[in-house]
């Protein structure tokens, strides 16, 4: 009883399959349309759900591509969008017919034939063009070879290394695999090797040029088995001229503009501050604009970021240079006042020494002369004679140099010596700082540019 039920179920399934095939065929042949006798003979007993050579090894499928266009290459999404003509060839022994001419069929008849389940591996979104009809081609040759062509627009992921952006080279791929048939059922191959892909030689891209392209054959290994895979590699080199005119030249000119402040007097505070702040803000805006066309969150330190950072450092350094020079001008004035005070103090000491020497000589001379009359006895109210008075008739003043002033002068002099010893590049005249900057800033910028371009272009 169980056997009869199983047999009835199998018979029902076969009957449903026959009815589906008949309905599909009748759907295509309607309103009086009749398939040619050759097609009718080919379709008689044909089962599209079984691959060719089902019991005699894998079927080999040859592939070729024609790149119609590469519309966009996005660094933000790390993908590219291309329109391609995908051509597949295989041999189906069930479609052999007599004659020496191929049969070109309507693309809608592909629903009656077995076709490979090819898919694009890294495709994010794809669609088949259907204006005015679905862009599909079916051609059957007398030996049973089937040519199946499609026009597809696909957006494919491309992992990009942007460390040398915009002097970078990107290698993108287009991978074709079989979805359900493993290598025991289907084998893929390129029909003409590297020449299987055409259209790149005449392709015009906005920011790139195609430097090289080649094909390869490999296998995709998954948990469910090994599957055939074809890979098309193409290398894109970015055109740097746009970025030179858009970013590199303006940033370099901003650096040169910041050097104009070196030729402006230190006393012109508004002019120099205006140039410094304006160049810093403009450079910041330029840096933000250069990053809008790049991924917002990535781990790449790009070459253009390095150059913009260098330019920003030089511009900011020019602003700091004026702050240092202006501060040194103020301290230079204060130190001159201190030195003037030191000179005046030394002059007073020298004058006091001269007066003291003259008084000593006068006193010794009076001792050598014979005393005519004894000197009057000193009284209790006698005043102390100042050694600086030559006559000794004036009292000696009690005033002495203020110790606080001397202590302050000593501390300032000590600090000045310490700063001199620490600052090995001390400039005696602050006005010479601008003179040095006029030479050091341009030379440093030229040297850094040589190192930058040498590294990113040749390494």
Automatic annotation (TrEMBL):
Record-annotated membrane-spanning stretches: 240-266, 273-294, 306-332, 439-458
GO cellular component: apical plasma membrane; chloride channel complex
Keyword Amino-acid biosynthesis: no
A matching Pfam family: Neur_chan_memb
Disordered as annotated region, ranges: 359-403
Neurotransmitter-gated ion-channel transmembrane domain boundaries: 247-453
Domain of life, source organism: Eukaryota
Localization per record: Apical cell membrane
Composition bias, Polar residues: 382-392
UniProt cross-references to PANTHER family, sorted A to Z: NEUROTRANSMITTER GATED ION CHANNEL
NCBIfam families: LIC (TIGR00860)
Protein family (similarity comment): Belongs to the ligand-gated ion channel (TC 1.A.9) family. Gamma-aminobutyric acid receptor (TC 1.A.9.5) subfamily. GABRP sub-subfamily.
Function: Pi subunit of the heteropentameric ligand-gated chloride channel gated by gamma-aminobutyric acid (GABA). GABA-gated chloride channels, also named GABA(A) receptors (GABAAR), consist of five subunits arranged around a central pore and contain GABA active binding site(s) located at the alpha and beta subunit interfaces. When activated by GABA, GABAARs selectively allow the flow of chloride anions across the cell membrane down their electrochemical gradient. Pi-containing GABAARs are mostly located in peripheral tissues.
Protein name: Gamma-aminobutyric acid receptor subunit pi
Originating species: Seriola lalandi dorsalis
Organism lineage: Eukaryota, Metazoa, Chordata, Craniata, Vertebrata
């Amino acid at each position: 009883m169980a056997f009869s039920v199983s047999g009835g179920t199998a018979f029902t399934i076969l009957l449903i399959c026959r009815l589906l095939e008949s309905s599909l065929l009748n759907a295509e042949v309607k309103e009086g349309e009749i398939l040619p006798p050759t097609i009718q003979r080919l379709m008689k007993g044909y089962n599209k759900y079984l691959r060719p050579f089902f019991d005699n090894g894998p079927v080999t499928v040859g592939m070729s591509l024609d790149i119609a266009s590469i519309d966009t290459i996005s660094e933000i999404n790390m993908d590219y969008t291309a329109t391609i003509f995908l051509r597949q060839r295989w041999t189906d022994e069930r479609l052999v017919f007599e004659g020496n001419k191929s049969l070109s069929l309507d693309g809608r008849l592909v629903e009656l034939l077995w076709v490979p389940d090819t898919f694009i591996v890294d495709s994010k979104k794809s669609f088949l063009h259907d204006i005015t009809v679905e862009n599909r081609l079916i051609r059957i040759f007398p030996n049973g070879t089937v040519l199946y062509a499609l026009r597809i627009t696909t957006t494919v992921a491309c992992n990009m290394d942007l460390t040398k952006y915009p002097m970078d080279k990107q290698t993108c791929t287009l991978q074709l695999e079989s979805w359900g048939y493993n290598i025991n059922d289907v084998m893929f191959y390129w029909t003409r090797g590297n020449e299987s892909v055409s259209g790149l030689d005449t392709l015009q891209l906005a920011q790139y040029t195609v430097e090289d392209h080649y094909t390869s054959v490999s296998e995709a290994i998954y948990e469910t088995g090994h599957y055939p895979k074809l890979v098309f590699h193409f290398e894109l080199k970015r055109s740097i001229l746009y970025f030179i005119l858009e970013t590199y030249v303006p940033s370099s000119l901003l650096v040169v503009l910041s050097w104009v402040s070196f030729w402006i007097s230190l006393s012109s505070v508004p002019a120099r501050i205006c140039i410094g702040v304006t160049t810093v803000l403009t450079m910041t805006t330029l840096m933000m604009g250069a990053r809008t066309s790049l991924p917002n969150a990535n781990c790449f330190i790009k070459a253009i970021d390095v150059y913009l950072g260098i330019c920003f450092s030089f511009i900011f350094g020019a602003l700091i240079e004026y702050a240092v020079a202006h501060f040194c001008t103020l301290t230079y004035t204060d130190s001159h006042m201190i030195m003037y005070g030191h000179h005046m103090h030394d002059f007073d000491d020298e004058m006091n020494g001269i007066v003291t020497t003259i008084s000593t000589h006068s006193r010794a001379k009076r001792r050598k002369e014979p005393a005519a009359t004894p000197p009057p006895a000193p009284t209790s109210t006698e005043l102390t004679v100042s050694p600086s008075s030559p006559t000794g008739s004036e009292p000696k003043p009690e005033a002495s140099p203020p110790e606080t002033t001397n202590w302050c002068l000593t501390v300032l002099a000590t600090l000045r010596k310490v700063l001199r010893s620490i600052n090995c590049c001390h400039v005696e005249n602050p006005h010479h700082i601008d003179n040095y900057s006029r030479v050091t800033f341009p030379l440093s910028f030229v040297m850094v540019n040589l190192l930058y371009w040498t590294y990113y272009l040749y390494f």
